[in-house]
Amino acid sequence: MELARRHGRYGYRKIGALLKAAGWFVNDKRVERIWRREGLKVPARQPKKGRLWDRYGSCIRLKPERRDHVWSYDFVEARTHEGRKFRMLNVVDEFTRECLAIRVSRKLTAADVIDVLSDLFILRGVPGHFRSDNGPEFIARSVQSWIAAVGSQTAYIAPGSPWANGYVESFNARLRDELLNGKIFYTLKEAQIIIESWRRHYNTIRPHGALGYKPPAPEVFVPPLTAWPAARAQPASPAKLPVEQRPTLH
Prior knowledge:
Layout: H1 2-6, H2 12-21, H3 28-37, E1 70-79, E2 85-93, E3 99-105, H4 110-124, E4 129-132, H5 136-139, H6 141-149, E5 153-156, H7 166-178, H8 188-204, H9 224-227
Parallel strand pairs: 1-4, 4-5
Antiparallel strand pairs: 1-2, 2-3
Helix pairs in contact: 2-3
């Protein structure tokens, strides 16, 4: 009940995944029974969606095959408490479902798109393709030339076909449903901090249905002695050496 209160838009499967991650030995059937007994809503199953095909019968959807193969990006708009609009540039790795970045600003241009992607290149390298709609910030000549110069390719969807950019559109829906619709932002700085915190939660903790209810990029704890092998190789101090190994004074 505490998890359901904290994550009001999660279904029982995601709550069950969080319980298991916390060390509870419980299966989904038991979680579902408790869920129904307490009167919580079980989300309806989503209908399966087919691939996109052109009139000649060939598949036109680029399928991600590995990490950093296809990145997709899109804009989302929201407002602060006084009614002023701000925009978010969301970048998603389609294969891992990880949200790589959310840039929050009052105004975002083609130069901001290049700036965000440049930072990501330093951390992860250059992806094979960029998928986006035909917004002016994405089809700007400066963006197209820059993407070609770094050795990547663009994959624009057909105009008026947001479903063809399904990975980032699904992420946008989760962002709006789980955060934007239920949160009042009084300042732009507050929006930037809270949205970035949610992005980290989405990547490292939030169970993802398409990933077997595992987070896209779970945090890994590395013990200090594993991270620093040299710490284990330090010689013992002379006071701890056996008597026969201690140096003699002349």
